[in-house]
Every structure is written in structure tokens, then in C-alpha cells.
Design brief:
mainly alpha; 3 domains; gluconate transmembrane transporter activity; membrane
Length: 443
Amino acid sequence: MTLLIILLAVLALIVLISWGKVNTFVAFLLVTIPVGFALGLPPTQVLSAVQKGLGDTLGSVALVVVLGAMLGKLVADSGAAQQIASTMIGAFGTKNIQWTLMATGFVVGIPLFYNVGFLLMLPLIFSVVRQYGLPAVYVGLPMLASLSVLHGFLPPHPAPTALVVQFHADMGLTFLYGLLVAVPAIVIAGPLYTRTLKGIVSRPLASFVAELRPAGELPGRANSFLSSLLPVLVLAVVLGLQAVLPARGPLAPTLAFLAEPGVVMLLSVVVATFSLGTAQGKSRGDVMETYAAAVRDVAPILLIIGGAGALKEVLLASGASGQIAAGLSGTGLPPLVLGWAIAGIIRVCLGSATVAGLTAAGIMLPTLAHSPADPNLMVLAIGAGSLLFSHVNDGGFWLFKEYFNLSIKDTFRSWSMMETIVSVVGLAGVLLLDWALPLLRHA
């Protein structure tokens, strides 16, 4: 019954938004409240769950999304994105642009959280699209596949790190195995799959598509790269220091503060205000107007993400994840496949990769204690499952849809299918490693 209610909720959202042309945030509220009643929550608890879901979701992403939008718009308007795109195309050529952006996303995605990396890379993607007349989804999706896979598979991202701790896995081995699984998943879901998506028409959010400038008016190459990628550099330095310094040393609190995505983005915006703003001849008023325009553009997106968070919280409050997981735990599937399946179904039903991964971990922990399954591979199997089929109850789905300005149908065809391919190929890679590792140990 729970699965049926969730399915009807998803269908209702699609009908309201696509056919009824209802504002997406309003559609979420119109669906979320009846779903709470249908799942047995009393009226006061439904409203509390909606408010908590909105508050928790916006509290976790609003700072990063707003500051990321500010930095992204300044990078676009200043010509820095155009300079970076021209440099990369000059070095690698337009024929290799997908692979170039995919590799860039891979490097950026190791230290950065997904939302930060997404917003940081958008101006670069859209500058390439504008300068060279390439399809936006075809160009951008391989880079986003890199960011998504690393977010789901590899430490130091929150969910994989938490799973490593819960399963008493080895952080280094998990990272190494994760790289072996991640690379083929990204290649298949990125450059290979997106060859089928060239026909998708995308008109990216205008805020990040700046007018092309003469080469003489662009910021310098070093300034463009350093200002745009400063969040990556800051986080890489901070994570490196955390790895070599004592965990409880005198610098630990300061490093933990500096590792917060919101702090990193704020520092980057402050630096870019000078390096890409006033140092390029802009007045402070002009730079602030750029930031104000960015906030106006992302406000509707924040509401949509908050609406998805409200629906997720109502499903959590009703105990839906526990019911689904309990129904799957007695299937007799091999442990690695079972962990993937539990995480995947919870992800599809609730929309949150983190919730799916942590819920699946709690269920699989007792099973793993009586199983020969490698805990490092269990982390990766659950991580792969937690990325399965992102759709209308996931904030990432709406972030991609709204910025790339796609229909729901085309977002399913591009974003949702990319995430599904990543998940399935990830499981295949984990099972291949599970078969190969004992042979290598005895070779």
C-alpha cells in the first residue's frame, strides 16, 4: 500500500506540473499534504513534517545555492567562463569537449559537494554551449555524471564516509575500489549515453549565459581559472591539512569550519568580488547588481527544492522507508545486491540519496556481520543504489531541470536515465570486483 501511495503521488506531481501547468512549488504542497493523510499521519504531524522538510532542506542548501549562483553569474558576466572555455577548447579541441569536461568534473568532484560543484561548473558548460553552438545536455551531462558518481561513491563525501564508519571499512581501500567502479560508470553514463541526447533542445537559464566578448576584454587566464576554481583549491588544501594534522589538534576546529561548503563559497565570492569585479573595472554597485540578479534567478529553484524536501520528510515521518526496507530484507538476494536494492528502492520512493544510503546501511549492518561480503564493497553497492533513478521527489532533479530549462519528459530522459545507468553500472562493477578480488589475493 505504501508503494502504491508513493507511485500515485509521483504521477499526481507529473500531471499537475506538466499537464495542469501548476506552479511546481504549489504542486508539491498540493500533493504532499494528501500523501501525509493517506499514510496515516495526523493533520498536525503532516504540517510539522512539511515545515521541517522545508526548513531542513533549505537550511542545508540555500547558502550554497545562493552563493554559488552569485559566483557563477559573476564568472559568466566577467568573461572568466568564456576565457576558460576558449583555453580548454584550444588545448583539447571541440571533438574532445565532452571528455575534457567529464575529466574536469571528476577532479572538481573529489573535494566538492555535489551542489557546489554543479553551480561552479554551470558557467563553464553554458559558455561552451554559447561559443561553439553545441547542445547543452550533450555537453553538460558527462561533467554532472562525474560529480554525481563521486558524491555517491567516494569519501570524503558525507554518505560514503558515514557508511565506511558504520561498516568498519577501510577508507583508503574504499576510495581505491570506488575509483575503479566510478570511472566506467561515468564513461558509460556520460560521453557514451549522451550521444543519444543530441536532439534534446535546452535553453539554459539566462543568468549564466553571458554575451560573448572580444578576447581583449576578458580577464587573464590565471585569474579566470583561480577565481572560478577557488572553492576547489580551498577545500583541497583544508582536506589535505585535516589528513596530516592531528584530529583533535588546536587547528581542528578552524579546519572543520573552513571545510563547510557555505564558508568555502562565501570566501570565494568575497575574493571574486575583487578579482573578477572591481579589479576588472566594475564598480561595487555593478557587482552587487550582478549578485542581486543571481538571487532573483535562483529563488524559484530554492522553493522547488524545498517542496521536494517537504515531500521527503512526510514520507520519512510516516515510516515509509522502514516498511519498504523490511519488505525487501527477506528476499534471499546476495548481500551486495540486497544492499543495492534496498538503497535503490528507498531512493526512488523518498528522493534522498543520503537517506537511502544510511537507511540501507542500518538494515544491512546485522546481515554483514554474518556474511563474507567485503565491507568496502558494501559501501560502494549501497552508494550505487542510492543514486538510482532520480526523479520528481529529488532536489537534484529540479536543479538540473530548471537550470537547463528542460521539460519533465526530457529531464527524465537525460538526468534520470543518467543516474540509473550510473547506479546499474556501479553495481556491475562492485560484483565484478567481488569476483576478482579473491582471485587476485590467491594469485
